[in-house]
Amino acid sequence: MSGSQVRIRKALDGLPSYKPGRPAAPVAGAEQAFKISSNENPYPPLPGVLEAVTATAGSMNRYPDMFATGLVAALADRFDVPPEHVATGTGSVGVLQQIVQATAAEGDEVVYAWRSFEAYPIVVGISGASAVQVPLAPGARHDLPAMADAITDRTRLVLVCTPNNPTGTVVWRDELEAFLRRVPEDVLVVVDEAYREFVRDPEAADGLDFYRRHRNVCVLRTFSKAYGLAGLRVGFAIAHDEVADALRKTAVPFGVSGIAQRAAVESLAREAELLERVEALVGERARVHDALAAQGWEIPHTEANFVWLALGEQTLDFARFCEDAGLVVRPFAGEGCRVTIAEPEANDRLIRLAGEWRAR
Ligand SMILES: *Cc1c(COP(=O)(O)O)cnc(C)c1O
């Protein structure tokens, strides 16, 4: 064969590809290995969900309901919003991609905090829009005044991640209020609340509350974390008419499978059990946080199901140290490790290893 290479859009040059958390490999010594690198839920699906999904599997020869009518109705009911304001997608990253596609292209700017969710630079980069990354403030928190300063007449979209992945910190209500006063009304502000269910800080901004009062606010949520359906790919946005409409236009047709829709509906109907599990993880979060703090670690206040260890240049060494002992954490070279709060046994091992690391 001869000839030249297929031409790929310049926008993709130099884009990182999303790195999924590595699977936990068994280590010598036969201790169970734990993957605590992707903020997954350690619990299996809620009782009854697996059975409902299994029953639905028999119709996999059919396309799913394209607009996930049943799920949209259940979400509208749960959050007391019009069904037209709910748009679903293949995980909230899928919905985010729809949002970026609907709002930003070459020549436009998207503002977000950094370090934040590793999917943001990829999704924005693919669109051809320019990313404007605003460094986190001390305490590893969003610097909303600086983000407002970064808005120009080219800005089309702002992403606010609360709790912030990977640092766990939340944006407070009064901060978001002051921020929104400075954002032009034709710029969309996405409040990415993938970890909302784990938030206990009463001062934390609630995206839905802001959506109800601001036409340019869109809330992004997912079934992947608290609900434990990461493998099924279902997330959703709650947004006003023009945004929700645009999200239906940019959706991958039939993207959310029938199984995923059913699992999400059944999970929503089991909120009591869900909350019990979330509460247990929140308890574990406090236990891990306090134990690490007692060892001398300085950990940003986390409201999510993970903790951030700002290890700087020691990041990769610590990740290797953990992996050798059967814990797969998520390193961000030169910055730190994000570690998921998981089953107590994994958390115990983290506490032990973190202590050994400091005592070296
Ligand atoms: C995990 C995560 C998501 C959700 O991903 P899904 O595509 O719904 O699985 C979205 N935003 C942030 C910040 C996350 O950490």
From TrEMBL:
Modified residues (N6-(pyridoxal phosphate)lysine): 225
Keywords: Aminotransferase, Pyridoxal phosphate, Transferase
Reactions it catalyzes: an aromatic L-alpha-amino acid + 2-oxoglutarate = an aromatic oxo-acid + L-glutamate
GO biological-process terms attached to the record: L-histidine biosynthetic process
Matching Pfam families: Aminotran_1_2
Obligatory cofactor(s): pyridoxal 5'-phosphate
Enzyme Commission number: 2.6.1.57
Family note: Belongs to the class-II pyridoxal-phosphate-dependent aminotransferase family.
Subunit description: Homodimer.
Name listed for the protein in its UniProt record: Aromatic amino acid aminotransferase
